[in-house]
Design a protein that fits this description.
six-stranded mixed β-sheet, alpha/beta, 3 domains, Rossmann fold
């Protein structure tokens, strides 16, 4: 039965054997099932049936040993690279079936966090289970897939409540994180400066504070490894009072950093140099553009959230003109609120900008949605009225004819940040914006 198969997977049994007994107490047909090392069959479970005990000609010890050896080999292969392996899960609830559109982005986030993705699953449901989100049967299938592939992590594209994370971890015996925690983990990896590390730790503690109430083994999965970089396991397992004290202390440190930052801004304003701020969706090429315009070497890689700490450089124009140009952290849809709050001091500098360069990855199939996300974030920050120039980047990745639509974009300019020949029109547009007569 389905219940037997669920027990087989979640209880980690070697085999499930069911013996049918007749009305007279005589044993009848025998059905036995075991998990397969690979998902060659739909459910990943092999089921066999014989008419009576006398026809049961199986050496169970040899069978189980061979299965365990193959499973061990698969786990060993997965561990060679020392990467966390994960199965990505998206749950579409009701008629709002848009989860598939964002699963590719979740995969990009996981890869950016150095996680090996072994597969993605999207499940449509009419109503979410308040405790487990999914039906137990589907969760058993996910747990079996993870067992067969050696994956120890389920990453949900949905926002999970603390109770759901706890229940899912208990039910599947796997590490469970959601999209927000994955983003927090990436930020923790990228933080370099003291300010960046403080901001990330503050965001993580605010996010995990309501989750510290868990009092079972799920807590160790929640706080260990993926999703808990930065503060570290010991800090995340302390009690609520000490967490609040730590948050208060970090806020005081950020306040002091903000005061120092304000001093630098005042000094910059006294020199009368205009300020240009580069904004955009994560991995749109903002740092690459900063390097190209200023001949700098700010860290720039093709992965999400490469830049957390703002970088400022001088941008020189013809006629002996200069401006300050600043790179900022990238935006993303459904950015965790705790991160927005923690990086508020950094984002405040955008209000000093005389011009915003909104960098767009023109090669992304989701660029229109990404533009809307950035515009909404800027509006939330009160920057809708700041002059903005849209920069359609990565045109070198477009095939012949795919860039024709860019010619009609009067609100922006098309470039490739890795091709200096395309930057002259952009520099001229910036100059006209700032020193318009």
């Amino acid at each position: 039965s389905t219940e037997d198969e669920t027990d087989l997977v979640l209880l980690g049994l070697d085999m499930m054997v069911v013996i049918e007994v007749g009305e007279e107490g005589i044993p009848g047909p025998v059905t036995y099932a075991h998990m397969l090392p690979s998902g060659k069959r739909e459910k990943g479970i092999s089921t066999s049936r014989v008419s009576d005990m006398g026809r049961l000609n199986v050496d169970f010890l040899i069978l189980i040993q061979s299965l365990e050896e193959e499973l061990a080999r698969k786990r060993m292969v997965r561990s060679v690279g020392e990467k966390e392996t994960a199965l990505l899960v998206g749950v579409e609830v009701g008629t709002d079936w848009k989860e598939r559109e964002s699963m590719e982005e979740l995969k990009e986030l996981a890869i950016s966090d150095d996680i090996e993705v072994i597969g993605t699953v999207v499940q449509r449901i009419k109503k979410a289970d308040p405790r487990l989100l999914l039906r137990k049967g589907k969760l058993s299938e996910l747990a079996l897939t993870c067992l067969q592939t050696g994956a120890g992590l389920l990453i949900f594209n949905n926002e999970l409540t603390p109770a759901q994370v706890n229940s899912l971890a208990e039910y599947t015996d796997l590490k469970i994180i959601d999209r927000s925690q994955l983003i927090l983990d990436i930020f923790a990896r990228r933080a370099v400066t003291r300010e960046g590390k403080i901001q990330v730790e503050l965001a993580q503690l605010k996010y995990l504070l309501p989750r510290l109430a868990a009092k079972n083994t799920a807590m160790s999965r929640l706080t260990g490894g993926i999703g808990a970089r930065g503060p570290g396991e010991t800090k995340l397992e302390i009690n609520r009072r000490r967490v609040r004290d730590r948050i208060a202390r970090l806020n005081r440190e950020l306040k002091e950093i903000k005061r120092q930052r304000q001093g630098r801004r005042s000094l910059r304003e006294s020199k009368g140099l205009p300020v240009i701020s580069i904004v955009g969706y994560t991995n749109a090429g903002k740092s690459t553009l900063l390097n190209a315009l200023t001949n700098s070497s700010v860290a720039a890689r093709n992965r999400m959230f490469e830049t957390l700490d703002p970088s400022s450089r001088r941008l020189r124009f013809p006629k002996e003109r200069e401006a300050i140009i600043t790179d900022t952290v990238g935006f993303i849809r459904r950015l965790p609120e705790s991160l927005m709050e923690a990086f508020a001091a950094t984002l405040e500098e955008l209000h000093d900008a005389d011009l915003l360069l909104h960098v767009v990855d023109a090669s992304s199939p989701r660029f229109e949605e990404q533009i809307k996300t950035v515009d909404k974030t800027l509006a939330d920050l009160g920057l809708s009225d700041t002059p903005t120039l849209v920069v359609y980047n990565k045109t070198d990745l477009l095939k012949a004819g795919e860039s024709d639509w860019l010619s009609g974009k009067e609100d922006g300019v098309a470039i490739s940040a890795i091709s200096h020949a395309t930057l002259r029109p952009l520099v001229e547009r910036i100059e006209r914006h700032i020193w318009s007569e």
